[in-house]
Records
---
Amino acid sequence: MNDGPLLTMRNLRVVYPGDDGDFRAVRNVSFSLGRERLGIVGESGSGKSTTGRAIMGLIPYPGRVEADVMRLGDTDLTGLDEKGFRRLRGKRIAMVLQDPKFSLDPVMTVGKQIAETHRYHFRSSKQAARAAALEMLEAVHIRDPERVYDQYAHQVSGGMGQRIMIAMMLIAGPDILIADEPTSALDVSVQQQVLAIMDEMVKSRGMGLILISHNLHLVSSFCDRVLVMYAGQIVEVCDAGRLHEAQHPYTKGLLAALPELGHRRDELPQLQRDPEWLIDLPAAVGAAA
Amino acid sequence: MIELEGVSVTYGALRAARDISFRIAAGDALGLVGESGSGKSTVLRAVAGLIPHAEGSVTINGRELSNRRPRDSRKIIQMVFQDPYGSLHPNQTVDQTLSAPIAIHRLGNAETRIMAALTEVGLGREHRYRYPHQLSGGQRQRVAIARALILEPKVLLLDEPTSALDVSVQAEILNLLTRLRRDHGLTMLMVSHDLAVIAHVCDRIGVMHGGRLLEMTTAVALAEGRVTDPYSQQLLRANQGFDASGVVADVTV
């Protein structure tokens, strides 16, 4: 195992062809990910989820993913076909989505779904896969794994569903976990538990985590480093603990627009969008790690 | 303006709200916070008369309302819903949406009323004949607020009015609500899971859990962390971002 970055991106572009020329949903995006917790924040349409999907090879036709460099450890992802990505997904990179209700298979017990991943990637026997799945369920703090193993998605709560998703995603021991709004559909107290479990898993296994969220407070309190995206580009990179010292007017505007407990203002400053923010930035903005 | 006395709402065997009592003076804003299933939206709907209450009394503007409400009582109380994508009719233009309440309540001069309501929420003439899909999320929520205002209500009920919106758009809508309350002396009852949002709009805040109103506190007390109920304290901590030390990882299934 080498100590180089887990993921390297240089000048990532995601393009959807349209009637009035190409629409660049993501452009000039460069960053590298180590064994850390990286946050990506931005408003809807900023390209944060599209970036995550591009890494997983999940951009549907006719969208195109282009990059100067796109490397997972020592595997080159540029020009990798669907078959190649299928071998990586789950094994090397995994993704947790927003709502477990929609990402779990409704007609298969949750235990079987977890075991299936194990069987696919390790060609293991049924018994071995079951044992591994039960162990994973226990690792995500599910009390009675045997009982939960035989339940269906509609029988579990949102927080538990999300823990099952995490178990399923981590069973093959990926290097990188991409979590796209993993707690937005959950209640605040459950959110904390799910985040704590993710944190624990990422730390104990030395994984890299990409947390995609619109919630600035959450990202700045949970992650090590934050990328701020606007209109498909990374406009700013900062240390999560120093997000309040952000320089870019967009980041500042977003922070100012948030209502704050104990600091009530009659009028919240509204974000004034500057057309200058749309101008292409040099692709190196996010590269500095 | 609003007075609830021992109100309970049941769905079959489930008691979604139990023994809820509070009063809101004219021009005041009260917020209800809690997690999903805590009964906060149920209380709001019972006040609106959208669902019948099993016990207790709901008094609005000095008049006790039963579960069958006369039309003129509905005029003084209007509601804005969470999802502006779902609460506007997709096949009706803004003009049609705003005309409906005027026709139902047989009010005259629709023309002036519609234009006044649009101006009030910061929309222009150009938005009047658009369909909801031709508007952004923030503009749709403005239309929903205009629809509520067109009857010149005294009470505005708000069910998570900004949780489907981006942060920058949320700020615009919150500013609009603050201004409307000031200019029209509206009484507001608002429900949200976001403590910062509710403390921005409301002076008094009720914490709900499991269908009960646990505690009635104020925005100031909340900001200073002066809440007594353990559940309120937990809610307050959870709203301040991620803190690994405050997490009980092994939870009941």
---
Amino acid sequence: MRAYVNTPKVVACDRESGGRDADWPVLRTRLGGVRERSDRDLVRAARRGDRDAAAALFRRYWPTAWRAALAFTGRQAAADDVASDAFERAFAALDRFDEHRPFAPWLYRIVANRALDLLRAERRLSGVEPVEPVDAGPDHRAGDRGLLAAVGALALERRTVVLLRYGVGMTPKEIAAALDLPVGTVNSRLARSLEQLREYFEVQGVGRD
Amino acid sequence: MSGETESKLSQLFAQLPEPDSELTERALVRALAALPTRPRSSERRARAFAFVLAAVVALLAASAGALAAVGALHVSFGQATHRSPRSVVSSAAQLTVPAGSGGIAATVDGRLWLTTASGLRLQGLPVTAAALSPHALYVAVGIGHSLVAMAPNGRRAWSYTAPGSVSAIAWAPDGLRIAYIVNARGRFRLYAIEGNGRHSRLLDTAVRSTRPTWRADSLALAYVSAGGRPVIFDFAHDAHVLVSSAAARDAVFLAFAPRGDQLAIATRHSVLVNGRALPAAFRDNGVAGLGWVDGNLAVALNGRVSSVFVFRFGRAGPLSHVVRLVQPARIEALDAWDSRLTLALAADSGVRVLVDRPATGSRSQVVLQLPPRSAVGTVATR
């Protein structure tokens, strides 16, 4: 279980997800016990006009939000637009945010919706679903790039849940809440997506080192 | 296998590249600018007072209504024929195609409103730029870094990933090329792409985001350099020609004539055509737009009175204005095409987009009404 929660106690980073812990919104200790402010504290301060708090909130979530946008759109240029626009909208709507709820799923929901808006607008205007290979990182091998392309080829609804689950790390319950879907629908989309990707593995031999 | 797939996916996403640090700082600035501003305590008190006052007024109104209902009080609210500004705004019409034209488009508050005679209708699509092709056969829109073209009848279309956020688009008169400007890390660059979405070509690395204008033969276009000087790019010779007139510095609008090679250049307070200043004093007025209508030059001015002057050109140069259309509100944008002027007018009651045909003297046709303080980007009728 990953922790979005803003509990005052210090919890350990979740390392199961592999390398994403630096961005993960858990409470950490640094410099001999200096405690990071919780999301809730930062949101409250930002609402009062504390720009430092807002900047801290931004820096905490920007990398993950940007990478999620990249995974959604497949293009770094589009990720720039989507993530930046999502933060603008989130900060503009901070007064309406229910501070009793976790901040991260709310933000990622905005990122997802902005990415979907962009992709749908492109599809609506061009008449075709834009399927483009993800601008992969330098560490990605050819097989990885193929898998990223396979994720990019998933239908938008399936791609969304896969990215929120494995790219952002949200639980099916959190995804369901973020997308206003029943948990069962999220689980079935995940299962079908994994099945589709598994078939891709079988054809391409990707992931069998 | 499913667990292996899940693990693989998590690892792959964790290896995605990091966002660019320069971009991160720019995004942070934008995000902070979007933070809601907190009202000062005095403002909060004023708001509380206003709220209490409104509650009292509402209570009195309810009492009056009750008395009126039982006939104890006669209530009248002005003339029966009066339309309040609010009712004008609330009855905002959908964008309607002016008679005889192929389509009309307007960008308002960063959203595109578009209607074509062939039946395409877009209402409020978020865009960074938009342009109709000649006769509204196609539309090109910038959606962030994407330049997308589509045929209103659903025929072939394309999407091109631009090297920056698309900020201005201009179709060539023959429809075979599109000039577009992108904002690449704070610098505006000018590109041209073929009408089929292929062979994008960089024309200038430092320009202003002023919309370029094409010469009638589609073989040259004019744009504003980063230094504010008009530049003509000649496709036939692959050459840049700087318009050297000192009076043309800090150009804000450019418009090639629909025939020939006359280029009109507007600065904030003057207009030049082929290097010669128009015989009109713009000192106390700001130029709000420029275009060619019926072969004559239309200049929109905002001053104590907002007007559109139409100048006729003879062999000896421009005559004085032949038509002056006084506008009841501030002119926010002007577009001219063939015999039509499209204007966006902003008043306290709202923003109106209307189409006028100066040569006919017919009444302006209002094609879109919007709430007050709507920010109009561009308007166009084709």
---
Amino acid sequence: MLKIPKEDKELLLQLIEEKELPKELIFKLVAKAVKYRYETRPIGFQGDVSDLIKEYANQKKDLN
Amino acid sequence: MFAYQGKIELDLEPEKNKNIILIGARNGRGKTSLLRIIRILIHGLKENVEFTIQDVKLKPNDYALGNKQWEGIFHKGFNVDTASVKGILEFDGKELTIERSFEQTRSSFDEKLIVKFNSKKEIDPQSFLNNIIPKDFAQFFFFDGEKLESIMNTNDLEIKKSLEVLLNIKTYEKLIDKIKESKRKYKKEVQFTKGEKEIERLKIDLEGCKKDTEINEEKIEKINKEIYEIEQDIKDIDEQNINILVNKKADIKPIQDRKNQIEKELVKLKLTISEKVKTTELLVLMIETLSKTYLNKLEDDSVNYQLDEQLKLFKRTLNSIISKVQNNIFDADIENIPFEYNLDFDTTEFYQQRIKNEADKAWGDFTKSKQKNIEKQVIYYNDENKVYLKNIFESKVAIYDKITLLKSLEEELIVINEKFDNETNYASKNDFIIEQKQEKKLNLENEKSLKIEKRIELKLENERQSHINRTLDLDIRKLEAKLSLSKPIINAQNLSDRLIDFFEIFKYQLLNKKVENLENEFNKYIVELAHDEKWIKYVKINKNFEIKIIDFLEREMSLNSLSAGQRQILATALIQALGSVSQVKSFVCIDTPLARIDKENRKTIISNYYPNASKQIIILATNSEIDPLKEEYIEMKKFIAKEYTIVSNEYKSFFEDGYFQKSNKG
């Protein structure tokens, strides 16, 4: 997993707790965003994001 | 390119704890061209409008090909029509190769760019580079020290966007866009699937239909009851009418029976009389009459002389009788016999003949025995007929009895007929009641028909409702099946909403935090760089990256009220702060870095800024700015990894190792 900036990570954790969203999903999404951040038309980014959301929306039990 | 000709390789790699690459050149030797080449390497020419020559912005074509005041990028001295630059850099721990080439055409130029990151060729190389160092942000990394103060104007929208890239906000914006795109995709997938609300609506409709059906069923049941009651009423009326009729019959029947009996008896009696009359009666009657007359005459005729007269009378009587017979005239008793028993002509003729014969016979006998004892003679003359006469008289009595009976019956019939008429009148009253009841029955039948029609209507309505029910039920089941299939997509769609909300908030908070960090860093570097701290207390940066300078009296200061040196220090502090908070750690290239900085501040910048500005800082300086023999250079020396001097001859510029090692070079 690509490195997420420290202060971003802290803020993310704080908000995850507040919004009660799956931490794993958030960090996976952010990691994808960091991975593709310099690419204007990144191949696979959209699909990865869609698949992740679909997967967590229907399988993960820590979702409210 | 520019003043450079041929292949020139320049190693600009920094060393550990030595981040400065110092390149010296006298004015006009190609120092600024090198800064331009670096900017062209990163952002190219075609889509760049930021190049200015003597404060005049040039269009890419003019910039590349040149005009009256500007020579362009192609070296005029060698009359070449191509130019290229290649940079090998390190980015994110990986090798980044940028190769850009230009070729002059008749009135324009072609530009080619190849970018390889970690040996992988980028499909959209310029966008890739822009994502690392936004075009509008190049001025923060590759800048002319003499114009550094202009970067303090951050009110530009493009600058704001660029800052968002550098502060990594753009990364999350892109993620939000992708989540939004995913949501659109999910929405598209389920756009034809009506959701739970639609199912709920259909269920309400179905319930409504079922309720309507139930209401109709209740109505039908009620109507059925009403019809049953009507039928019962009709039945009652029928029974009542039947009873009335039966009663009527019961009243009339004996009379009717008696009447019929009498009538039958009369017919029978008349027939009997008729038959008797036909056979004997007439004769009997005639004979009787004849005999009576004859005997009467004989009784009176005690004198023989009178006999002739008597006989004449007898003859006359006989003739009279015959005549009467012939004219169907009977005596009073006989006249009572109903007309229909009268004899027809043939019968009359028969009897007439018979009487004639008898009379003739009687006359013959009479003439044969003209004796005194005629009485006896006459009496016994008919001796053989005595029994016959007796029978005839008995028959006559019997006929008269029967006629008497007939009369009695006829009288009784008259009485009975009267009674029958009375009873019939009474029955008519019952008929009126029956009629009333029939009318009521008819009304009830009509009412029943209406109710049956209503029932049919309701049943049809229920059939229709039932059809709708089935359709709705089917639709609901189909929708539920579809919904079940789309549930994962809908879940994903819902999660997308929450994620968008999450990252929007996160982006906002992160931006605020980063701006706050930038502001803190900015203030920190101002303190570090500004030799004289009295002119500024602090700076404020809002989330739109607008910078406000506050003096010690807490007043906002205009940038124009500051000296050029102060503005340059602020700009340097901003660049340093940006470098500190930025996710992108780019190399920095500064042309004429200290031109407007006074002596005190120069030292601070050299010792505080340059070593910390970046891992790699390329400084393009004149020897008047950084004199190789003076304190600034000595101070900087410990951070210098490589030194070059740009020199030129009449044809071209080139690089020599060392920083102004030969004082007369260039």
---
Amino acid sequence: MSIINQQTRGVFTLFKKEVLRFWSVAFQTIASPVITALLYLLIFSHVLEGRVQVYDDVPYTAFLIPGLIMMSLLQNSFANTSSSLVQSKVMGNIIFVLLTPLTYLQFFLAFLGASIIRGLVVGLSIYLVAIWFVDLPIVHIGWVVMFAILGSALLGTFGIIAGIWSDRFDQMAAFQNFVIMPLTFLSGVFYSIHSLPSIWQTISKFNPFFYMIDGFRYGFFGKSDISPWVSLVVVTTFLAILVVLSLKMLKSGYKLRG
Amino acid sequence: MTIPAIQIEKIHKRFGSLHALKGLDLTVNQGEFFGLLGPNGAGKSTLINILAGLLRPSAGKAAIMGHDVVNDYQAARMALGVVPQELVFDPFFNVREMLRFQAGYFGRGKENDAWVDEIIEALGLADKAHTNMRRLSGGMKRRALIAQALVHKPPVIVLDEPTAGVDVELRQLMWEFIRKLNREGHTIILTTHYLEEAEALCSRVAMMKQGEIVALDTTANLLSKFAAKNLRIRLSEGSLPSSLLPMLKHGEDSVFTLALTELNQVEFALSELRKANAEIEDMQLIEVDLEDVFISLVGST
């Protein structure tokens, strides 16, 4: 067996294990976020339909769905890497991976790949359920797919950083509650930032989540608060920064190898 | 000359102000059954973790089958199987799945499945192959850990206190299994608290204390270097005469253990006791074991 084959098989096995890990508890990792998103959809569309109109010819419920899809996708990509890492650190079974010849880059790619899959599966599930109830066009499928992948990659990477840094479950939960949740809720999932007072509009522009959701929404409606190209540049830049940071952590063995 | 299974040169490890390993040198040859003994905190696990790549040495070098554990870590880890001390497990998968994943990390695929089944069989895990790791008893988890270290057929196997908290039956089974691996050509490095375990299994042992090796020799040599035998006597009447005090190793109530350097000292001890009008209720000649050697080198644990 050639070295290349052997290396590919190693990284693919870890990727597969990480996918099967969330798949084996799909009720919690897929079904539960889909139901949560649908509840948001039900409540918000019931309360706000007809009262809020963001774009002229887009009903509020349709406007809301891409935001909800992106929100769930981001949260679940983050949860996949961070909870897997924290759990295997707390349980101690992380050593089974650390004892192998897998390089830090292979480790990164396998974990990241699985988190992207989780994000996409959750996002796609919400979409497939939602289109039963709401007429939802997709104007530019390419932008939709690109922002879905970039968004889940970004949060998957962030989850790797949080998972390596956290020694306990409550520390990881702090990331979720004090970083991910506020940034998602203040990013325009439920509204257009143009409906905000100008000071909040300015603040929102420092929130990377805003660009992921706005760019994603552009793919559906061909309309957005800012140009999707700007969003693409911001999201890619941010992703690159996090990838470099997490690779540095992994390469140094920070909190994994003493 | 063949490459040593393990070559450690001047390894240091510091954790802040703690100097856990103080310039260790150690060579273990291929095919050896080697014991690493020492009290808690002696540095055994630190040393093993450096070999396994879980810790990085502060200074010095270590190599497995000639592959440096830092610079050539992929080849080094391919050659090494580690059975960790803690009963760690992945709660999401069953025994067979977990073993196949582990083999996959080492680049092994379907062609390796027969070997995985063979290990499962040999370790008595066949009934549990489809049981989730979470549901296994402690003893079964221990077996699964050993299986996990073997999936990639490593020439060198390190077992970090494999029999801690294991019942007698399983301990015998594990001893037999590890002996078989050694006979088949695997190099075994065993750390243990149980001296009789090292005595029964290892052909050579290193004793560690506070980050240093204080004794390194064949088990037989270490044993013969120290007093040949112990004489244990129980007195029903009288007390130990002062002429025997220099030989006294241990005394409690009316039971005394005397260290003999030569066997004819038995005669001397008995005549002194007779002179002192002490009455012997029971007496035993006891072989020195590694524990005696250990205590005299390392101090009481």
